[in-house]
Amino acid sequence: MSHREITVTVNGAVRTATVEPRRTLADFLRQDLGLTATHLGCEHGVCGACTVLLDGDTVRSCLALAVHADGHEVTTVEGIAEPGEMHPVQSALWESGAFQCGFCTPGFVMTIYGLEQDARAGRPCPRSRTEIREELSGNICRCSGYQAIVDGAEAALTAATATATTTTEGAR
Amino acid sequence: MKPAPFEYWAPTSVDEAVKILSGLDDPGDAKVMAGGQSLMPLLNLRLSQPLHVVDLNAVGGMSDISRDGSTLTIGALCRQRTAERSADVAAAVPLVVEALGLVGHPAIRNRGTIGGSIAHADPAAEMPAVALCLDARMVAQGPGGERTVAASDFFDGFLSTALSEDEVLTAVRFPVDGPGCGAAFVEVARRHGDFAMAGVAAHVRLEGDVIAEARIAVSGVGLTPVRATGAEAGLRGAAPGDDAFAAAAAATSAALHPATDVHASGAYRKHVAGVLVRRALGTATDRARGNR
Amino acid sequence: MSSSVMGGFVGARVKRREDVRILTGTGRYIDDVQERGTLTCHFVRSTVAHARLVGMDVAAAREVEGVVAVITGEEMAALTNPLNLGAPIPNLLSPTYTALATGKVRYVGEPVALVVASDRYVAEDAAGLIEVEYETLPPVVTSEQALAEGAPLLFDDVPGNVIHTGEIEHGDIDAAFAEADHVLTDRIDQHRWGCAPMEGRGGVATFDRSTGMLTYEASTQTTHLLRLLLSGFINQPINLMRVVTSDIGGSFGLKFSIYREDVALCAAAKHLGASLKWVEDRNENLTAAGAARDESVTIEAAVKADGTLLGFRVGMVMNNGAYPIMPPAPVVTNIAGYMLPGPYRLPAYRFSSTVACTNKASYISLRGPWAVETLIRERMMDMIAREVGISPVEVRKRNLVPVTEQPVTSGAGFVMEGVTASETFDRLVEMIDLDEIRAEQERARAEGRLLGFGMGTFYEPAPGTPEFWGLIGFPFSHEPVRLRIEPDGKVTAFTTQVPHGQGHETTLAQVIADEMGVAYDDVRIVFGDTDATVFTMIGTGGSKAGMMATGGAMVAAREVRRRVLDIAAHMLEANPDDLQIQDSVISVKGAPASKVALAELAMGCYMAPGMMPQGVDLDLEATVKYDGENGGWGQGSHACWIEVDQETGRIGVTRYLVVEDCGRIINPSVVDGQVIGGVAMGLGGMLLEHSAYGDDGQYLAGTFMDYLMPSAPEVPEIEIVHLEYETTTMVGSRGVGEGGTVLAPAALLNALDDAFAQVGGKRITATPLTPTKVLGALGVIDG
């Protein structure tokens, strides 16, 4: 099986690598780039632990090949805040005591981060707790029972929506 | 669980993809990959071990949504999330938008494609049932050129379609809803976002207060999505309402012989398909009335 | 609250320090261990349930580029000792077995060979080339099949496939039934479901050829036991064996045991002189790691006309799967047997249990492993209420023992003291309006909707008492803690807990900060490393930590604090009793100018002991044990509201209320998280999850597409009320990790029975509560 050279912008940095085409995006990130924040919980696209952003959209990195990212931008948990700092989504989840064992956490952070980016941009995003639960249904957590995750997501999205409203009003 | 090795092809045009497929000793050794949301799990689990993967993701011009009179064409590579959020799709074929909202989860739909879902032909999936219900036409390109296949001829077995091994699905053409049309997709799944135990796509066209035409497709109850032709016939010319819908539900269930698996028994699926037909017809009719 | 504020950490909603690394993705889970040169392992597993292993061809696999070794069962057997994990349990007929199968395979997923390769892709390629020849034998899947006359035997030395039988008897059971106005019977066949932590099992075994040291970094909840057993199984001197943990992606009981994969991995690492990693994938985890709750229970209740309990006669059959592991299944049947009478007055009781072995993966512990006792008892309480014509509230009130009437002898014959199940139930009842619930149900029925309401109460060994664990045959162990003040006055404490989500780095630091008078941020908790922590048999598990680890931390902190005050008393020429430590400064109460900084004192003790006061203990490190005093119990009462779709059979949980009592709360976030997560697990287990096997012993739920974990929309918002009843022990806190999972299935099933009772539905006696079963019970479909 021939290898392919790929160039991927990961968390803002251009990375070049030679990979087997069968290599998943998740394994490329974790093993080839050492970005181990992205976790593998099932490797068949159900649990959502491996969620990353590909060109700004949330995707399962176990259901994409590394070669799919060639020429594209990938964002992982390592890339949403400066080292030693937290993104507002992370802070809100910390505040709400969202997680326990933490294995599913990067996937939830990235899913909620994706929603938060929508909210900041004034795009539709879930508001009610029921909507948030539905939007998070592609991420499985075994520890928390979800309630505190929903608390954190609700707080982060409310804050982001407020920011978006302010920005829009300011622009008028 | 990691994919077995395969030869990887990344054509940049449909012509090239077809050429690659038809140039293989046995095109049956190849899998065509679009969004990969159905194929990747199979590869990871090594349930599918193709010798070749022909990846369409680099093919240009296959993601467009266009409307031509009474036909809405969605390129096979159009991401499900794009179609779901498209005002054009919502206006022309609202059933597609409603069904897409039930496909997996947003992160799946960001990657999954309209064509990929239909070509994978999972009998429990939403898009094949929608295509069958609306009698969408599949545009396929092969070595001999382009052809279109009606949905009623397209799904010919479990995870199997009328596409030949060296053909690529390039677009799906949906008839645009006219006046008096209404549709609904309803399903029952164990969890939010799961493949449904059964699902129903229903489309009705009212003339006056009479059902001029009803189309019903049921997912999750056989080797392919199935049209409830008996129920449809009974509804033609009937007054919409509880009696007609109950008769359609009964006719639908009576014609089905679903299998049992870990999620539901065959008897359950048979019953629930009827329930969903009744519910879907109710919603579809309400929407049709609002559309007059 | 800000972590720089002094004092008052216990009881505060302190943000967890674990979360900083968890949220930023900088944790170290087992697959994040990526040292250069580490090889990857992959197990080849049986594809059949029961067969003789006739042959195996590994030649092609060994030829694959990147493959370092392929080890067969026979080869592994030469490197290891036979595994026997049931030996300490009396009357347990525990067959020994090999790390990789030899001779026979006994479940789908049993490891038969180990591939060692440069990476996982290559290892799986090679595994695909291994041909295993099986001569299949009739599979034994259910307990009934295992116990049937003439059933195929799994092990030559286990007659009748029975590995254990047990009896518990207390009071005059025959008299109770002779006296009864009503005798009710019931049966539950609980389905098999599993732990399914988001991170499966796994480890990295590294053999250092220069020192002969074997280090095993593992995803485990019990490091010392793992080290002890591993060293024996692989003939590694225990002082050359170290087990280490970092972050663990959940366990729920799964990672309490030592597994044959651990043994094979460590033996192979030693054999090859290499560093080997194995990370279980989801398919392996669901298929081969084992599952739980595969048991049938029958109950007969003797009751007076007014609903007063007279006696229970209970029989339990557990499906152990093929191989006993830690803790052996009889521990579970025993706890179930002793807890089954619950917090009720029960004059007479007889319990008998049988553990059968079958061609399934092993029965493992799962959060509240004994939970079936609460399920069948609380359902029986509702049956009794219906039979005698009283409400589910009244039947419990008539039988619960208030804490004011304790100590009292439990229905199973041990001392029950400080159990507040009755008080939690009273509080629950205050928060609901049963008449309004009934009226609402009636209104709903008029609209064609079906609502159900269920409740239940229970208590649990969290941690239990020495007497209780003596009856179980499992020791009530002490909890050691090592604690030292560093030269700069900061505190390092070494716990034997192996936390995997419970937040011990936060809660133990809260406790120690308050005890020592130092800042929370100045306390670090070390865990997991057997080279640093003190031996205990159990790491984290069994809802022990709330009381035992807290107690250990308190005793250690108080001991070191005493030494500090003794030293400071000399330095400040004061009585130790007149000293206080605040903000890491020791001062004389009422004379704050007379003071010495903890850092200054500590530096003196370490660097210039000769210049420090003499005749006092200058050692600022202490290793202590907390004996747990007389232990204690956790308890709670739950109420569950559901709506049943009579056309689709779907059950929606519309409201869920918990009143729990784990004593003094150290961190409300942590306690709430344990309760909510536990309830979610209990509901998911009943409604969605099923480790299903076919008649042929094939496993049917090997992916998360078939093994259905609850996701956010399936879990209701859970309301929690805390009672904080404190017993007379030094530690006001008790465990809280398991109760949600124990009681939620009962409250849910009672709600379903309540719904069915309104429309003549049949009671479901075999779980899970699938839509198919619901429609069958409602008579909508056959079945």
Automatic annotation (TrEMBL), chain B:
InterPro entries from the UniProt entry: CO_DH_flav_C, CO_DH_flav_C_dom_sf, Diverse_Substr_Oxidored, FAD-bd_PCMH, FAD-bd_PCMH-like_sf, FAD-bd_PCMH_sub1, FAD-bd_PCMH_sub2, Mopterin_DH_FAD-bd
Pfam families, alphabetically?
Answer: CO_deh_flav_C, FAD_binding_5
All copies of domain FAD-binding PCMH-type, residue ranges = 1-179
Alphabetically ordered keywords of this record: FAD, Flavoprotein, Oxidoreductase
One GO term in the molecular function aspect is: FAD binding
This protein is called: Xanthine dehydrogenase family protein subunit M
Recorded source organism is Pseudonocardia broussonetiae
TrEMBL record, chain C:
Q: Which domain of life is it from?
A: Bacteria
Record key words, sorted: Molybdenum, Oxidoreductase
Domain called Aldehyde oxidase/xanthine dehydrogenase a/b hammerhead: residue spans: 24-138
Q: Name one Pfam family in it.
A: MoCoBD_1
- InterPro entries associated with the record: Ald_Oxase/Xan_DH_a/b (IPR000674), Ald_Oxase/Xan_DH_a/b_sf (IPR036856), Ald_Oxase/xanthine_DH-like (IPR016208), AldOxase/xan_DH_MoCoBD1 (IPR008274), AldOxase/xan_DH_MoCoBD2 (IPR046867), AldOxase/xan_DH_Mopterin-bd_sf (IPR037165)
GO molecular function per UniProt? iron ion binding; oxidoreductase activity
Name of the molecule in the record:
Xanthine dehydrogenase family protein
Question: Which species expresses this protein natively?
Answer: Pseudonocardia broussonetiae
